[in-house]
Structure formats: C-alpha cells, structure tokens
Amino acid sequence: TDLPRSPPAAAEPRHASPAAPRRLREKLRTAARMAGPPARTAPGSRQQVQGGESRAQPASASPPARETRAPFRFDYERFRRSLRHPVRGGRSGEDPETRARRMKIKEMMKFAWDNYKQYALGKNELRPLTKNGHIGNMFGGLRGATVIDALDTLYIMELEEEFQEAKQWVEKSFDLNVNGEASLFEVNIRYIGGLLATYYLTGEEVFKSKALELGEKLLPAFNTPTGIPRGSSLFSPCSGMSWSWGWASAGSSILAEFGTLHLEFLHLSELSGNPVFAEKASEPSLASVGNIRRVLSRVEKPQGLYPNFLSPVTGSWVQHHVSIGGLGDSFYEYLIKSWLMSDKKDSEAKKMYDDALEAIEKHLVKKSAGGLTYIAEWRGGILDHKMGHLACFSGGMIALGAQHSTGDRRQRHMELAAEITSTCHESYTRSDTKLGPEAFRFDAGSEATATRLSERYYILRPEVVESYMYLWRLTHQPKYRHWGWEVVQALEKHCRVEAGFSGIRDVYSTTPSHDNMQQSFFLAETLKYLYLLFCEDDVLSLEDWVFNTEAHPLPINHTDSKA
Ligand code: DMJ
Predict the structure, then answer these.
(1) Is the pLDDT at 168 greater than 70, yes or no?
(2) If pLDDT is split at 50, 70 and 90, which confidence band does 444 have?
(3) Where, in this chain's numbering, is Ca(2+) bound (predicted)?
(4) Buried-exposed string 405-440: b where 16+ CB fall within 10 A, e elsewhere
(5) What pLDDT digit, counting tens, does each position of 286-336 carry?
(6) Pocket of ligand 1 (CB under 6 A)
(7) Which pLDDT does position 69 carry in this prediction?
(8) Of 139, 192, 255, 461, best ligand 1 pocket probe by most atoms within 8 Å of the beta carbon
(9) Which of 362 and 245 is assigned the larger pLDDT?
C-alpha cells in the first residue's frame, strides 16, 4: 500500500477501453451479448452515497433483464492449457542446500498456519503471544483474512492437508453477508486477490464464486461524481454504502488505493463475463477501473509526478505529496503489471509507467553521502530524504519493468533496481536484529537507519524480500539468495515465538519486544516470496503470472495461445 500503518498491536461492451486487451474486449462483448444488461450491485446501493454527491440513478431505473440465454462460463481447462509452465514447477535438479532452505521456509509457513488455526481460525489475524485472534476494522465484517491470504501459499508449498483445512473454512464458514465498514483496497488485494489466485491455481469453483460475489459488493464505492472510488474506500458489504475515512485528507481518494484495483477487476470481468468491473458499463454511473485510468491519464501531473491524494468529486489533486512508498506505491506497480498481464497489449499502462518512472528518476532518485541510492519523498517540491519499508518493493518492480526496455534504458533501470535493493538490504544489515525499520532516512548524518523512535518497528513486512525474489529471478546473482536467507534467520531469531510469528517494536534492540501480531501478509507475501527465492524459476513462472500487490498470482492473458 499505501497506508503507512502503525504497529498493529498498538495497531463494455459498448465502450471498450482502448487500454483493455483485445482478446478480453472480444470476450467481454460476447459475454455481454449472452448475459444481457450488466449485473447490478446491491439493490438501492447507488442512492446511498453519503454527502449527496452522487449523480447516480435509482437502482430500479431499468428492470433486471430476464435470463433467457445460457450463462457465461469461463473455460478453465482452456486457461490451464494456455500456461507455459506447470504452476508448481517441474522440480528439476537442484543443490541440497537450496532444497533444505526451501523446506525450512515451508516449515515456517506450516508453523504460522497451524498456530493461526489452533488459536484464531476465523479471526482476521493471530495474536501469537496471547494466543487469540484479532479482528480489527480494516475488512468491515469480513473474517478469515489470514485464511484467504494463506490459501495460495499453502497450495504452492504443497501443504495439502493445511490447504484442505483452509478450503473447508471458505466453504463452510466464510460469510459474505456481513455489515461493517471495509477498505476497498484491502478487501480487493487480500480477499479478491487471494480468492482469484486460488481459483486460477486449483480450478475449484468455490473460490471463483466467492470472489465474484465479493467483487459485486465493492462496486458502490465507485459511485462518485468522477467514478474515482470514494475517498478511502469504505463500504458496507450489506447496504452498499460508501464514504470516506475521516482522516484521509479532506475526503480525498488515495492513489495507491484506487490505483490498485485494475489487475483483480479485469479478472473479475474475465471470470464473470460481466464487463462492469473492467470497464464503464451502459450507465455512466457504473464506472470502474477503466474510468480510473482515464481520469488519471488526463489530469495534469506536477513535473510528471502523481500526487497521493485526489478528490473523487472534482478529479483534481488535493495536495502535492508524492511517494513511491506508502500512499503511492502499488499504483506504479499496477501500471507495469497491467501491461504484462495484458500480454503487453495495454500500451497506455506501459506509457504511464514509463513516464512516471522517468519523472521519479529525475526528481526523486538521490544518492546519499555514503553512496547509497534511495527514492526520496516529495512535498510540493521539497524533498524529504526518507524511504519507507513499503518503498522497498520498487527494486523488484523496476527490475521487472527493465526487462522490457532496450539499450541504455534497460541497463540504467537494472542498475537502479539493484542499487535500491542494496540500499534496502543495508537498512536491514545496519540494525541489530538484521531486520529493517518501517522507515529509514538519509539526513542529519543518518544513512539507511531510522532516526525516529516511531519508525523503528518491523511488522513482518514483505517488500524487501519481494525485491530479492525478483532480482534473483532476473539476474541469478547468488547474493539475493544469501540476503533472503539472512532474513529467514533473523525472523527465526527475533520474530518466532511460542505460538507463531510476531512483529517487533524496535529493530535496533537485541532483545526487541513483540507486538503480538502475525500479519496475514506474512503468510501471503513474506513467506511466499522467500519460498520462491529458493525455488526453480518455473514455479509460478514470471512468464505466466503477475503477482498482485499482496503476492497473489494472477495469470497473464496469453493472446497467442492456441489452447
Ligand atoms: C501488504 O498488504 C501489501 O503488500 C500492500 O501493497 C502493502 N502493505 C502490505 C505489506 O507491507
């Protein structure tokens, strides 16, 4: 994301987007012909936007069409034949040390899952010190965030029994008829992403149907004058209302939130045959991710940069804070991954990514006195020489994007990716625990270290190992595996407790205190990326998959497939 978090214990068919891949657009047209008018969201939902800003029509304006034609059916077998690699890899020869390390990470996953299952099954996260569950308020009334986030990791690691336990919970206990305020962004990346990925990996219908049902419940958040989903993406799964987080910059929408829907929403349309998720449907008020792209590509960008806050009412920037870390991060990630997922057809996304990266290189990339490359934040033209842990995903993203550039640019971007990843590694090695702080600075004599007490914590975040995984796959330089193993050892030493893994409050203390929280992204991302770092490249091959921002793999749309 996007949202810098405090320590948790304390804390179309008629108007196809030119950006949508051609094959998908054709499918959507066919699907729309078969399905009749687009499915509607929760009854009455479009009238219920707080503040009376909606230009929406009553949901009853046009009666639902009677289903007289065959329902849309996604051809799963055909999709599987289009993959170039077996999803869990071919298991060719490997050295025993790599295998042993991979097995160790698998054991960590089993330990994290078993403890969650024993003490917190059905809650959102495990509290490993007090051996109970945590619910929090991010997902509204939804439960089981750790189950959904863990599913594909359990599957990939061949933890069959544990995967069946998780699947059973989804089948029997995952209740979508809940009331509460939930973050559109978090529900999308964790729940929708996790369910979609598990469906694509296994072909089990339950995951698809839950993802689609939940996707429908998210649509009311788009009901704003600009179609940019409401403020900070709060919604009520039952009543279909949406409104803004109180603290979020005068009701504005956050770049990393509304910019991190595209991958999942295209797949929701692909699997349902319902164009509403991917593209503007027949009513102007039913705007979706295609519209977000249009608003963003048109709005003027200061020095080519994208500020983090946009008004969903006027479509203008609310303040000029730019960051590749929290509040901005996954917007950039979803541009390059949208292009990759479209089999390189979504040229608008690629151009937006290239232009954004150029502006970032020009205005935000800096070198410290000690020679470390970092990406600073920007506040109305003034640089803040700080990098958040969240920003460390950018090494992997820039390396991934560099593969598709040529000549000088490719080399420059690979160097930049390697330098940023190395700086993030430094933020780990310069701490006593060998784990990195939430934010580190390059001012007042500091070099990749946290200077504020409030920035010293580590909550099991994945971004640094995520970059190690991409850099390993794209360069095969052994140092990335070494660095990943250092993290495994540090996690074992400082974060493993009797009943799971916990974040720590101070990475500079040799006896850190624990925050009593096993974040769901530890199972979705940190352990998955570590595992993949010690796998052959054909396990979840980058030729077949893109990872959403919660590390859930979504398939690339192979347009040349003869499947
Ligand atoms: C995860 O939920 C996702 O990686 C998100 O994009 C950023 N924050 C956390 C992990 O740090």
Answers:
(1) yes
(2) confident
(3) 549
(4) eeeeeeeebbebbbbbbbbbbbbbebbebbbbbbbb
(5) 457 888 998 998 999 999 999 999 999 999 999 889 999 999 999 999 999
(6) 1, 330, 390, 461-462, 521, 525, 549-550
(7) 64
(8) 461
(9) 362
pLDDT in tens, 386-413: 999 999 999 999 999 999 998 899 999 9
Binding-site members for Ca(2+) are 549
Rounded to the nearest angstrom, the distance between the alpha carbon of 173 and the centre of ligand 1 is 25
- For ligand 1, atom 11, which residue shows the shortest CA distance? 461
As a whole number, mean pLDDT of residues 126-134 equals: 98
Distance from Cα 545 to the centre of ligand 1, integer Å:
19
Q: What is the pTM of this model?
A: 0.88
Q: How far is the CA of 167 from the centre of ligand 1 (A)?
A: 23
Pick the residue whose CA is nearest to atom 10 on ligand 1. Answer: 461
Measure the CA–CA gap between 390 and 328, rounded to whole angstroms: 10
Residues in the chain: 563
Confidence of residue 150 (pLDDT cuts 50, 70, 90): very high
Closest Cα to atom 8 of ligand 1:
1
Tokens of 194: 């996790």
Structural domains of the chain, with CATH? 83-555 (1.50.10.10)
pLDDT beyond 90 at 149? yes
CB 149 within 8 A of CB 550: yes
Q: Which atom of ligand 1 is nearest to the CA of 190?
A: 2
Q: Please compute the mean of the pLDDT values over residues 270-274 and round it to a whole number.
A: 95
Residue 140 to residue 82: CA distance in whole angstroms: 37
Instruction: Catalogue the active-site residues.
Output: 186, 329, 438, 463
Q: How far apart are CA 120 and CA 150, in angstroms?
A: 14
Distance CA 274, CA 256 (A): 25
Ligand 1 atom at minimal distance to the Cα of residue 260: 6
Centre of ligand 1 from the C-alpha of residue 336, in Å: 17
207 SS3 class? helix
CA of 521 to the centre of ligand 1 (A): 7
What is the residue with the minimal CA distance to atom 1 of ligand 1? 550
Q: How far apart are CA 503 and CA 506, in angstroms?
A: 9
Q: What does the alpha-carbon distance between residue 484 and residue 197 come to, in Å, rounded to a whole number?
A: 24
Interatomic CA distance for residues 335 and 350, integer angstroms: 6
Rounded Cα distance between 96 and 118, Å, is: 32
pLDDT score of 319:
86
**Residue found by looking up tokens 């078993």 in the block:** 114
Q: Which two tokens stand for residue 221?
A: 């958040």
**Burial call 508-531: b when 16+ CB within 10 Å, e when fewer:** eeeebebbbbbbbbbbbbbbbbbb
**Taking Cα atoms as reference points, which of 345, 344, 471 lies closest to residue 399?**
471
CB 471 within 8 A of CB 480: yes
Query: Per residue in 476-488, pLDDT tens?
Result: 999 999 999 999 9
Predicted confidence (pLDDT) per residue in 27-41, tens digit? 434 333 333 333 322
- The residue whose CA has the least distance to atom 5 of ligand 1 is 1
398 beta partners: none
Testing ligand 1's pocket by substitution, the residue of 487, 550, 552 carrying the most ligand atoms inside 8 A of its CB is 550
